[in-house]
Amino acid sequence: MKTVVSVSQGSSDFDYEIETEFLGQNFRVIRLGADGDLGRAEALLESVRDQADAIGLSMVHDHYQIGKERLRHPDTERLEACVPDKPVTTGAGLRGILQEWAIRHTQSELGHFFDNARVLFLNGQAGYRIAKAVAEHTDNLMFADPYIDLGVPRLLTSLGQLETYTGLTGPLLFRPAAAATLTRMRRSPLYRLGEGLVKDSLNHAVENSHVIVAGMADLANFSQKLLDGKTIITSRVTESGLDWMRSRRVAMVVDYSPWLDDRPVGMNVMEAMISAVLSRSPGQLKPDDYLGVIEALGIKPRILYPLGYRRVNRFAFVIHPLSQQYLTKTPPLDWIASISPPAVMNLVEKAVAYSPPFIYSKVSGIRSPTGDEVEGWLITVGGTPREIMAHGPEFTYSRLLAAAKLAKKLGAQIMGLGAFTKVVGDAGITVAKRAPLPITTGNSYSASGALWAAHDAVKRIGRVHLGPSGKMAGKAMVVGATGAIGSVCARLLAKAVDEIYLAAPEPAKLLALKESIEQETPGARVHVAGTADRDVADMDMIVTATSGAGKQILDIMKVKPGCVITDVARPLDIPAADVAKRPDVLVIESGEIQLPGDVMMKDIGLPRGIAYACLAETIVLALEGRFENFTLGRNIEWEKVREIYKLGLRHGMKLASVSGVNGVFSDDDFERVRARVRALEGEPSSVKSHPKRA
After folding, report:
1. Cys bridge to 317: 257, 416, 497, 663, which one at CB 3.0-4.6 A?
2. pLDDT in tens, 38-68
3. Pairing status of strand 88-89 against strand 64-66
4. How many C-beta neighbours within 10 Å does residue 12 have?
5. How far apart are CA 513 and CA 91, in angstroms?
6. Which of 469, 510, 662, 673 has its CA nearest to residue 585?
């Protein structure tokens, strides 16, 4: 029987002696704690050197290789020197392999998990192999070594900074006298005066991270508020450790430690056992030796969910003011607007268009029935539609790319384009090519939401019915049919309505769209026109999806009573003044989506927990872990519209209450429209604005 002894600087209260089998050989494993006393550790090593085949050192520093800097810790060297004739190890070789594998396994198993994540290392030197692996997926690295080593409230934010810091401080901190010097420094009144600042600063770093790499003992002082929703990368997670994680509402734990006989084993113990079995010193172990053991024992990183499956993904979404009036709602511009003539606000509008992007709101509390969660950020760029249209596309591209860089720094894994930003230039294609993270315009869900809302409203008005073909017996029009959302609405409506009318001032594109629809949907009856005026009086349903930015799109006085108009455009195609003229027509503002969970975000002009469909698309993709360019360009695939609709249902998305320019429509509002239509139908002479075409 071989004997492995682990001498730990930890408490002797946890000493044990067990017998086990390892790679076909019988082992006795003894753990001896030195209670933090280096002299006692030396005495323990002397007492066991004759009986041990290999020795492990626990809770001592590894000899670190950080970049080109090789650091040998004096305390570890001192303990190693006590038993020069026996294999002695801290487990550094095995630890580095399992740490790196834990990252690669998690990224492969969960897909894109570490993309742009903000990862905090409480000890960057100990987690260097993890940091190098994570750096392949994110630039958002933070190292708290200056806090821990020197009490300096400053984070290192790159591998390069960690390597430079180690090169400068390592030769000093790893000198034998360094520990005593640091102890004296920490007892000084000046150091204690700054402890509160250091603690607050470190707590802030923990709160703003997504992943924390630390030993279990290093996490003890952090509260539930700080650790709620975090992923912890650590080792030796026992049931009691998992209970502690549960009490802190930690979302996920990655445990890279090996297990033997249903208990976690220290890296030093297992590497010592490998040395004993192979009769080699730790320095003589080769990659094949480690691989043979790992495969023979089936060692694998563990992904644990203390509270049940819970994954927190991240998104960003770009918003912008839809008009000059939106700017006046933001301090201090509201005050400027109240005392300034319109000319001054015109200058303000132009100036704001050049402002750098900034965070308008953090978004949290979105929870899918699947257990997936997302958090995100609404990022504002300053251009109103008028300013965006007054410049070339490159003007907006540059601001969207600046927003994308900010989103990446925040930790977003995908970014959505909202309102006018999603139709500028080539509708997201150029931005996606240049951006450092995946992009979607949200137009697939905008199209889905528009038709979802229109279908719901038409049913509630009760003016149409299904014909023998299974399609809606009626006529539908898409204004702005050649645009990104308009074209896909046209394709989908052609499958659901008897006759479809397409209006846009682009004859060649209209003819091509008509031809394409007739090929996709045999038997579809498709009509085209340069404007809506010719056919609008006959329509039961109208979808407006233009980029008119305030221009008159259709004459609402020509629309027949009971028509449902879905206005997808932002800014709206149909102003509130026009809507007020026709109480017998239902004008709805596209299809907003009710998000799942207890959603927290600033006001975006909708009731709490409700989002525009383009924002909801970004959230659905984040919940699904689909970090890819999804909807780009002006030719939206109707298959993607169907796919995002189904994914939305899977994650608990619902059609929000149908709303118009004056807010949510109640049952009384629908009944009022029905009553007015009935009254008008009983008085044909009063409907002078709806002439039939000859």
Report:
1. 416
2. 999 999 999 999 999 999 999 988 888 888 8
3. unpaired
4. 14
5. 66
6. 673
